[in-house]
Specification:
Strands 1-2-3-4-5-6 form a six-stranded antiparallel β-sheet. The chain has a domain of 153 residues. It has 249 residues and is an alpha+beta fold. A hairpin with a 5-residue loop joins strand 2 and strand 3.
């Protein structure tokens, strides 16, 4: 076939003009994406933080209940343990060393913050006020998964406060956010307790979860007059191991 004299076939695809985005359109699009991200990222981060908090708190509770069971098998029933005899007794370390520490794998003891190489370990209530007057940190145990445990005996009332900081030295070091409070009961007749195991502070005192939030003392709210945040662990526990929507996060 002879194509001489015929023009080359026109390539319409090559001759098409490709229309791109203008700089203004790109900037507007990026701006919209940035606005959406700024609105959604805090919610995503908060949701993740809440999930991690519950998981670590639940793990600690499970581990400590297992520790108590192991300890009872060797030291007898918890009701017969040799509890501290005085309030704010600094010999609480001896109690922990005997009944808890041998059953916490690879835990490390810290006296007077000698485990810390950086900033001071300062504790706050949920309302932001310093809690160092109540939480006397003379003896800390650091678990093998990076949690702090410390105790404060309150003998006239018949219990020991056990504190856990689920992320150790990391911020915010705040009761109700990464620090939670438990009771260890040492007196058989205290409030008719039938056992002496680890309990979230106040988990049995209040009738509803709303009471755990609204009470003026110990409440899981940022305006509680005294001990703000002490009931937050009980609130999570009573909510089925969840941080409810009305939690002051």
């Amino acid at each position: 076939m002879n194509f001489r004299g015929r023009g080359a076939p026109e390539n319409k695809l090559l001759n098409r003009k490709i229309k791109g985005f203008t700089i203004a359109e790109v900037l507007i699009t990026l701006g919209i994406i940035g606005i959406i991200a700024s609105m959604t990222m805090p919610m995503i981060i908060a949701k993740y933080q809440k999930k991690v908090t519950v998981e670590r708190l639940k793990k600690f509770y499970s581990v400590m209940m297992n520790v108590i069971n192991l300890s009872e098998s060797e030291n007898g029933e918890m009701a017969d343990w040799d509890f501290p005899k005085e309030s704010y007794d600094k010999s609480i370390d001896k109690f922990f060393q005997r009944y808890y520490l041998p059953y916490l794998k690879d835990a490390k003891e810290c006296y007077s913050a000698n485990c810390f190489t950086k900033e001071v370990y300062a504790i706050k209530y949920l309302n932001g006020q310093p809690a160092d007057g109540v939480v006397v940190v003379n003896y800390i145990v650091k678990t093998n998964d990076g949690m702090y445990i410390y105790l404060l005996p309150n003998i006239p009332a018949g219990y020991i406060w056990m504190f856990v900081d689920i992320n150790a030295h990391q911020k915010p070091n705040q009761i109700g956010r990464d620090i939670f409070v438990f009771d260890v009961y040492g007196h058989p007749n205290y409030l008719n307790r039938k056992n002496y195991y680890l309990k979230f502070w106040g988990s049995n005192y209040y009738k509803t979860t709303e009471d755990l939030i609204s009470t003026n003392n110990y409440g899981c709210n940022e305006s509680a007059a005294d001990y703000s945040g002490f009931l937050c662990g009980a609130l999570i526990f009573r909510s089925g191991w969840k941080i409810p929507d009305n939690y002051p996060w």
